[in-house]
Automatic annotation (TrEMBL):
<feature type="binding site">
    <location>
        <position position="249"/>
    </location>
    <ligand>
        <name>a divalent metal cation</name>
    </ligand>
</feature>
<feature type="binding site">
    <location>
        <position position="245"/>
    </location>
    <ligand>
        <name>a divalent metal cation</name>
    </ligand>
</feature>
<dbReference type="GO" id="GO:0046872">
    <property type="term" value="F:metal ion binding"/>
</dbReference>
<feature type="binding site">
    <location>
        <position position="120"/>
    </location>
    <ligand>
        <name>a divalent metal cation</name>
    </ligand>
</feature>
<feature type="binding site">
    <location>
        <position position="81"/>
    </location>
    <ligand>
        <name>a divalent metal cation</name>
    </ligand>
</feature>
<dbReference type="GO" id="GO:0005737">
    <property type="term" value="C:cytoplasm"/>
</dbReference>
<dbReference type="InterPro" id="IPR002678">
    <property type="entry name" value="DUF34/NIF3"/>
</dbReference>
<comment type="similarity">
    <text>Belongs to the GTP cyclohydrolase I type 2/NIF3 family.</text>
</comment>
<dbReference type="Pfam" id="PF01784">
    <property type="entry name" value="DUF34_NIF3"/>
</dbReference>
<keyword id="KW-0479">Metal-binding</keyword>
<feature type="binding site">
    <location>
        <position position="82"/>
    </location>
    <ligand>
        <name>a divalent metal cation</name>
    </ligand>
</feature>
<dbReference type="InterPro" id="IPR036069">
    <property type="entry name" value="DUF34/NIF3_sf"/>
</dbReference>
<protein>
    <recommendedName>
        <fullName>GTP cyclohydrolase 1 type 2 homolog</fullName>
    </recommendedName>
</protein>
<comment type="subunit">
    <text>Homohexamer.</text>
</comment>
Amino acid sequence: MVCALAVISDGNLRSVSLTLADIVGIFEDRYDPAWAESWDAVGLVCGDPDAPVRRVLFAVDPVAEVADEALAWDADLIVTHHPLLLRPVHGVPATTHKGRLVHRLIRSGTALFTAHTNADVADPGVSDALARAVGLSGDLRPLSPSPDDPRRGLGRVGELPGPLTLREFTAGAAKGLPATAGGLRVAGDPDALVRTVAVCGGAGDSLLGAARAAGADVYLTADLRHHPASEFREAGATALVDAAHWATEWPWLRDAAGLLGETNVETRISAAVTDAWTFRSHEGST
């Protein structure tokens, strides 16, 4: 479909009414489904490929709050990073929360499309957007390059425009990412200077060793566990910044929406904060 669109005489996609198949083609050109992990579930979840698409809502998670927003805005398509049906199912009855969501979307004529690990490794992909959001500039390189193409891969490593203290870097990162109840947790000397930064959108403790090998002064990711983080810090000076999973992947939504910038499709980034944690308490025994 995308190739067919490209030969339109005026070369202007804004003059073309796009179908769901056209939109899927645009996203799969950038985020090839073949790049997804074998355990992943990416692509079109529900929707009629021949249906016209006028409005697309982008969100990290396919949850009821996002569906509410999409239906209220009369969206024709929701594009999410996280899959709805990651594990195999044998049915989608409305007696389950995921089944109810599928039924609501089908009844309203709203399609759902997912780009997950194929968007993680793309160039540019999820971690590129995260790197820019926390202040990295210039060239970025994969933290864990793909064996098929060294330009692709998980995570990114890059340089700050100038050295900052860890405290300053973390403050800037907090401003660049959406606010969450958990904020940012930091392990390291707040006055230590950092210049080389590694990032990974989503759960990234599998790349701790790669961050050290890349010479990163600080590694920002999500879902860090106590023992891996503690052992990592004991073994070297690389600082750690642990952000909310949702927050590290949210910057990618703007990049994904930008793929439709040359079309006549209206896009919106979901206002829903779908981080799992809703508040924190600092009280405790002394």
